[in-house]
Amino acid sequence: MKADFNGDGLDDVGLFYDYGNGHVALFTMTGHGCNSFDPPVLRWDAPHWGGGTKFVVAGDFSGDGTSDIALFYDYGNGHVAVFTLYADINRDGGLSGPTLGWDAPHWGSGTKFVRSGNFTGYFQDDLALFYDYGNGHVAVFTLYAKIVGGFGSLRLWWDAPHWGVGTKFVDMGNFNGVSPFADTMAMFYDYGNGHVAVFTLTISDTPSGEGPYMRLSLRWDAPHWGNGTRFVNAGDFNGDGIADVSLVYDYGHGHVALFTLSGTFNGGSFPGAVRRWDAPHWGGGTKFVTTGDYSGDRIADFSLFYDYGNGHVGLLSLTANSSRDGGFSGPVTGWNALHWGSGTKVII
Ligand SMILES: [Ca+2]
Ligand SMILES: [Ca+2]
Ligand SMILES: [Ca+2]
Ligand SMILES: [Ca+2]
Questions:
Q1: Which Gene3D superfamilies match (predicted)?
Q2: Cα of 184 to ligand 1 centre, how many Å?
Q3: Model confidence, pTM
């Protein structure tokens, strides 16, 4: 599960809200299946937290079957830290206050993406940090969750001195379909002029048996895709046990569409982008897209956070077909709030 804060097997939705002046809060919406959600419940309110929260991710960092929340905080001058809010072990949906899980006074300011996943096969989720050194040099680090809480054992997963500056999105998933606990990274790369591509890093053993290394694979190359890709997510949208990649494309004038690239077992090329949803008059208000199983069939669905303006927001779901044909139904509105405000910064 990606964001199951009460451990009932259905994904929930978390919202990180910034009131300004350092006042932030976390809300969760408990999912009940069939795309029905409770209204947001305030789980953490921090009037003096500060403005440095750069990334908010969900994952089961404690390994107890409930999703927790990690906040990546940037103090400036290269000092960063990760705080964890653990889900209550009694599964009431609540969260602990933040505890400092990793403190790196000299990390640097180049962290471009932080995602969670299970990289070890152990029960706990870990963090992946995509770092941009500038001049096209990038690297991915993993930060492993510790059994006693917090994070430790930082490792360099992949170092690419000449990668380039075009990485626009990354997400984690099980892209080789071999081990259920081998989450790795997909990277969406924009070469400019409408040419895009998706790469994955997967764990492979060297032929000489020197142990695992990260293999880079080009999975999809689209020289004439266009410049409209707004959201890229990973999830198993057709229920075959292998992570797929979704692309939400904005054609302009309110016309959006959802495409999926279905993962393949052997690490080979994705068969190609299939248009799964086309909405010519959707509008331009989609602010966030997240995935999870909101229907209870173990197949990943979508939640779209829509901002209608003037503080009016809504959450809409696209539900993967239980027949596992890769298609979707919806969207269906799961939450509509006329006076929510405009401070939502992340949904998970
Ligand atoms: Ca749940
Ligand atoms: Ca947990
Ligand atoms: Ca799949
Ligand atoms: Ca589902």
A1: 2.40.128.340
A2: 24
A3: 0.96
